[in-house]
Amino acid sequence: MDGKILSSQKGKKGFTLIELLIVIMLLGFLSIMGFSLFQGSQKRSRDIRRKTDLRQVAKALEMYANDYGYPLAESEKIKGCGTPTTTPPAITACSWGSIWNVTIGTTPVVYMQKLPTDPGSGSYCYQMIGSGYKLFAILESDDADKISLPVSCNGQTIYNYVLRSSNLLPTQ
Asked: Of 7, 47, 73, 144, which sits with the fewest C-beta atoms within 10 Å of its C-beta?
């Protein structure tokens, strides 16, 4: 009788193929859900950094404006690096990712140690408008600050986030 019990239990050990397939499908579904949530949080994180970067650039622009007025724009860049006290002024466009400084005599005045670069594959853009400026970025996630109709900056890439200087009207 012991032999009969052992042989009947022998066939009931382990999982059936159906049970294994169900477990594998559930694990696959959960991993896909987790990955999509992770990607969404990464996009939101990069968007927060973009907004913070542009606010920091705006502060530096205000400091520069106190000294020289708002800088001109050149190919999506801030034309505010170089030596403004020479005749004619030797002002060049500051590259995103480089230092933003102005040399007075032999002393450099640093407005930003490093002009930020977009944390993703996009770029930032600066545009001077009358007595103010606009800073542009491309947001990835569905953000409340995202503008409904994307705009171009200096005829370049289409941007969906704009930070305006406080002296511009909302319609500018």
From this structure: 144
Omega before residue 116 within 30° of 0, cis: no
DSSP 95: P
What is the dihedral angle through the alpha carbons of 157, 161, 163, 168, rounded to the nearest 10 degrees? 80
CB 163 within 8 A of CB 58: yes
CB half-sphere exposure, 25, CA atoms < 13 A: 6
Please state, in angstroms and as integers, the Cα–Cα distance from residue 80 to each residue in 14, 17, 71, 117, 141, following that order. 72, 69, 6, 17, 32
Q: Are 96 and 116 in contact (CB under 8 A)?
A: yes
Contacts of 79 (CB under 8 A, 6+ apart): 71, 72, 73, 91, 92, 93, 94
pTM of the model: 0.77
pLDDT in tens, 91-130: 899 999 999 999 887 888 899 999 999 998 889 999 998 8
What is the tens place of the pLDDT at every residue in 32-49? 877 777 778 888 999 999
Cβ neighbour number for residue 108 with a 10 Å cutoff:
12
Q: What is the DSSP letter of 14?
A: S
Shortest CA distance to 150 belongs to which of 162, 140, 142? 162
